Amino acid sequence: MARRRGRATKGRRGLLLGGAVGLAVVLVAVLVLVARIAQSPRSSRLSTTPYPQVTPTPNAVSVTVFFDFQCPYCGQFARESEPKLREDYIRRGVVSLRAVHFPILGGESWMAAQAAECAREQGRFWEYYDLLFQRQAGENRGTFSPRNLKAWARELGLDGALFDACLDSGRSLAKVEQDFQEGRRLGVSATPSFLVDGQLVQGLMPWERFRLILEDALRRRGLSP
Amino acid sequence: MDAWGWLQVALAGLGLGISGYLTVSHYLGQAPVCGPSHGCAIVQSSPYAQLWGVPVALLGLLFYLVLASLPLAERRWPPLKDGALMGGFVLALGGLGFSAYLTWLELFVIYAVCWWCVASAVVVALLTGVTLRRAWRALEG
Asked: Do the chains contact at A27 and B140, CB–CB below 8 Å?
């Protein structure tokens, strides 16, 4: 009798613990599923203001930004001012933006710039640019290691083999060097620097000041600010 | 409450300290102190550190808060004891599984290890053991 009761207690205990483990497994599965959906690159903060696929009007104001992926002020510009620039001006076609590499902070700046050019080969420069600025974390600390740069290309859905071949071959280095020389010729000495319709403005500035410079340029071209 | 109950409170308190520090550094926009690897800054600035804008560290904070409160609730409301013991075990095991997923992300997706996150995973593993033992003992009784 006592043995039977003991067996029944053991069975109940096993059942309860089994049920608890089952519940925990379901809990983990739900959490991981939610995390996978929430953390997919498409729904991350990166795509909140994607670069507008708009052809600029013929008399659009041209803005060139000289930047370094490791420079924190460039990151601040990319994360805080650029979404407004894209939304309010580039989307309307009245401003065209060109990003020119000006890697002045060391090896990982050059590596990141080359990787961005490899993303350009697949038509995804701006998405990769946004991603690198989101991942910025200090200077030459391994953040922009080839391994990370390749993994992030895959995260964005780029062709991994093509991207790796591009980065490993160093074929995009010439383009980065050409960009760097362009900045030097123009007298760029800080990042970010901007060329707004030929007028060089160096260093990060508050969005409101940048907007005033843009609006002056728009008025000069007869475009409404 | 027995020594195992207090051990659960103490471990959850340790987890609260870790996740609290990571939550505060997230909202202050500062990289957590991390030693020479700088992995914490990389992990914390990655999109995997948030779920729809909610920092994972904040979720961890709530998780530890519940695990720390359960033994105290058992003490205050004895009829809830069995439910709290099993609930604590389910929660801790679920947390362990999710920590394993986050560690996998660090090693194979982000390629950076945050030692605070590793410490939290160890605390969750210990909490799973403690809550399992407490639930087991209650079922024996």
From this structure: no
Confidence of residue B124 (pLDDT cuts 50, 70, 90): very high
Minimal Cα–Cα distance from A222 to chain B, Å? Answer: 41
Domain limits of chain A? 2-39, 47-220
Helix (H, G, I), strand (E, B) or coil at B93: helix
What is the domain range of residue B44? 3-140
Q: By the 8 A CB rule, do A207 and A81 touch?
A: yes
Does A155 sit within 8 Å of B109, measured CB to CB? yes
Strands (E), chain B: 50-51, 54-55
In this prediction, residue A158 carries a pLDDT of: 94
CA-to-CA dists, residue A191 to A17, A107, A201, angstroms: 60, 16, 10
Q: Are B123 and B15 in contact (CB under 8 A)?
A: yes
The two three-digit tokens of residue A27, written as one number: 């809990």
What is the number of domains present in chain B?
1
Q: Could you give the residue ranges of the DSSP H alpha helices within A40-159?
A: 72-76, 82-85, 107-121, 125-135, 146-155
CATH code of the domain covering residue B59: 1.20.1440.130
Residues A80 and A73 sit within 8 Å (Cβ to Cβ): no
Burial label for A206, CB within 10 Å (0-12, 13-18, 19+), is: exposed
Residues of chain A with pLDDT under 50: 41-47
ipTM of the complex: 0.74
* Domain A47-220 bears CATH identifier 3.30.1440.10: no
At A46 the pLDDT is: 47
pLDDT of residue B67: 95
Cα–Cα distance between B116 and A42 in angstroms, integer?
A: 28
More confident of the two residues A152 and B111: A152
Residues 156-215 of A with CB under 8 A from B: none
Buried b (16+ CB within 10 A) or exposed e, A32-64: beebeebbeeeebebeebebbeeebeeebbebb
Contact B106, B114 (CB under 8 A): yes
* Tokens of residue B109, six digits: 């997706």
B93 touches A: beta carbon within 8 Å: yes
Q: Which tokens in the block code for residue A110? A: 């050059």
